[in-house]
């Protein structure tokens, strides 16, 4: 028998970036907010011995425990879906801060084109540019409408950057802090891309270039360029994350609390409203019901969709009929690139997760697609994250896989290898979707989420085109050998590719084409909000965090408005 607890104004499911933003904004407004986090509490003091590549970079100590909950995967509906037993293609966060703890710190605003992609593509190239199998649609909001929220997130996070990219949307203010160091490695990229007629700029970074105090009074330290960002917490408090910004802000109000080891297994609904959530204490096995005036799903893409499905809220997408929206428009990313082997030795072991330079000349619709067999593109970057000895062992083609020559080549090339790579956009396809697995369950008896996904013709064509551009750049940088990335075949759940999963709980202007409205309020339950990259109707040429942050700040205004007036916000 579940124990019913005292009611709160707002409960968030997950305490990462989205849960922290909602918690801070609602708590500052005087609402009583509770964050439910199935992982443990953690913070900067816990990362003082974080430079253990095997523990954190290989065995993923900060990530979700897949022995308790995972997903199943198949390429198409004819295949049997099987559970993902080890972290592979993407890394699911768990614990205070979520994936915002172990991210690299790349912080982007999606392009104006992204938010109106259907309209702009049809107007410029015609409605048959992509086949009807691609489920392209606008987001229901424009870049200009989101710009104030992008600005607010960047000021909260202290993002370091420079407003010199001619292709992105207009900004209402400059970056809060200057760009990171332009190292000799980055200067090679800058010179090469400039020589080719492109427009390089420093990558917007949440690894801060200098000490910064945000508008809420939270202090963020300057980056030490130690090379331990991705998959690691920051021992210096210099990589902006929820546990050093929005979560402390929420706690200072006295209106906010976090309950750890609380795994939510169901959203409870009655009529056209939700009443709260049911969760299991993962340490004791006890069940609790947490009533709330407003429920906000702020966990990862996969879990938000799964919770709605197991709770029977919304209509699950059916690829046969095209009806239903829950689980629809799942998108991933493609990663075109090229590796260059150089003669000179470089300090590749030093760096930071978002230390890099980028060009957007081949992103969005920044180049003409009239004679091309794809839309969109990618940001192409050279990053200097700091390579580590276990995971990084680049070898030129035809190097023996073992023996003296293998050892010699490994040692020689460790500091003589650079890569240019792209974050390639992914378009929604009718056969790529999320659903519940009919066979497998998690440790708590809840069905696992099933991912049905494969790369499409659009993906392969885009990947090939951009790989050629990456080869061109790495050659211009002076590589003695340039090796293009392998062409796309079938998607596999291993190896690691990117944690930029999107879709499944998409936003829009109608319940016919979306799960939530443009305030991220659920169409079928007015006091339920669903926030995350699941709201994206497609995936862009950047990482999603900055756009998620903007959506969360916009949604927080909607929650406050709803708490006063009730009803639909659109």
TrEMBL record:
Cross-referenced InterPro entries: FAD/NAD-bd_sf, GMC_OxRdtase_N, GMC_OxRtase_C
Gene3D superfamilies in UniProt: FAD/NAD(P)-binding domain
The entry's keywords: FAD, Flavoprotein, Oxidoreductase
Domain (Glucose-methanol-choline oxidoreductase N-terminal) ranges: 221-329
Domain Glucose-methanol-choline oxidoreductase C-terminal intervals: 428-552
Domain of life: Bacteria
Any single Pfam family the record assigns to this protein: GMC_oxred_C
Family: Belongs to the GMC oxidoreductase family.
Protein name in the entry: GMC family oxidoreductase
Organism: Sporosarcina soli
